[in-house]
Amino acid sequence: MFKFLFLLLIVSIISCKEVECQKIKYLATGNEYISIPTIRQNDAGIEKINFILMRYNGLIELSGDGNNHFIMPYIEVNNKCINIKNPKWIRDKFWIPNYNLEYQNIEIKGIIFTPVNERGLVYQLQLTNKSNSSLDLFAGIKVSWNNTYLTIYSHKQIIGNKKVIKPTWLNGIVIEFYTEVPTFAIAFGTEENKLLKIIPKEIFENGND
To answer: What is the pTM of this model?
Structure first.
């Protein structure tokens, strides 16, 4: 059965306890459909997401590569990209990761959650200008979907193709992953009437971010 995942600007379920691996601290969250097992505390990036695909009776993992996370927050101040470094984290209701930090006179807040009964996740960003001057602010996400894996007792890479679609029903794009036929897809969207920057089509075809 063809499945959609929805990512809103945006699965084995594991505990939301901190996990420390190679000196990198992680948080995790998820719901009954999707899990986010590796949220990096140092830069608020999501290394991978997981979900069960009954067609293969296994766990599907979507991830970036060695240099890029699957999802990274992307913030511009006056058209200059800034990096999130070592934000302060709390867990709302012991499960929903929240972070905040200040960059000069800008307060940055982020929330990562998976709504109950939904096949997707939300990555919410809020920027507050605390200065007395006007600033051009932009918040979004950068996605690097480089690898797809299937786990049935062991970890195996799935070789397939991606197709980018711009549907009329969504303020965003859909990326289909298919082998012999479409297998699953991810939809990327924003809040209604919010600006959506879409990376040029040729970049996706070359397999980059």
So the answer is: 0.79
